[in-house]
Specification:
- The protein is of the alpha+beta class and 198 residues long.
- It has 2 domains: 37 residues; 155 residues, Rieske [2Fe-2S] iron-sulphur domain (Rieske Iron-sulfur Protein, 3-layer Sandwich), CATH 2.102.10.
- Helix content is 26%, strand content 20%.
- The protein has a 3-stranded antiparallel sheet with strand order 1-9-8, with no helix packed on it.
- The radius of gyration is 28 Å and the shape is elongated.
- It starts with a helix and ends with a helix.
């Protein structure tokens, strides 16, 4: 009888130890596997950014941060749009032929969904400096042919009012247009295409 008792006790201890080990392994695996998930901060950095455009006056610009990059939103005035339609001979890629510079819906003369609004990632395509807005026409330092746009103070790259790069400057391509869509007349969502949302 004592041998049967010993066998039962041994079997019970083996089963109990196995169950305890399995529970411990699961308890250790859950936090380990959870650590592979992106943090809330990382998720927020990649999340789309909603922008209220209602207070942006014609001819003015605002910047927001999306995925750690500055994004410039320019509300072009009627005068700016007329200047934009002018001469394109000085531009390196006037028709935005380099496809990864903008989504297909922004591959047009204004590089935008709505001609009034330009949305570009404000990192110079040369070395990533942030170009400054120079919307004045023919300033002394940029010459009489300057009709407004963006100027990179680091190495002198120039971009027009559609973010297209001028020829003869260090920047190789136009400023990038991020994926975006409009949620209403004056609400913009940066980081999500209309096609993705549909």
């Amino acid at each position: 009888m004592s041998e049967d008792n010993g066998l039962s006790r041994r079997r019970f201890l083996t089963v109990a130890t196995s169950i305890t080990g399995a529970v411990g392994a699961v308890a250790a695996a859950v936090p380990f596997l959870s650590s592979w998930q992106p943090s809330a901060r990382a998720r927020a950095l990649g999340a789309p950014v909603e922008v209220d455009l209602s207070k942006l006056e014609p001819g003015s610009m605002m910047r927001v941060i999306w995925r750690g990059n500055p994004v410039s939103i320019l509300r072009r005035s009627e005068t700016m749009l007329k200047l934009l339609a002018g001469e394109k001979a000085d531009l390196r890629d006037p028709d935005s032929d380099v496809l990864d510079q903008q989504p297909e819906y922004a591959r047009n003369a204004t590089r935008s969904i709505k001609p009034e609004f330009l949305i570009v990632i404000s990192n110079c395509t040369h070395l990533g400096c942030v170009p400054v807005n120079r919307f004045e026409v023919a300033p002394a330092d940029l010459g009489p042919d300057w009709v407004g746009g963006f100027f990179c103070p680091c190495h002198g790259s120039k971009f027009d009012l559609a973010g297209r790069v001028y020829a003869g400057v260090p920047a190789p391509t136009n400023l990038k247009v991020p994926p975006h869509r409009y949620l209403g007349d004056k609400t913009l969502l940066i980081g999500e295409d209309a096609e993705v949302a549909a």
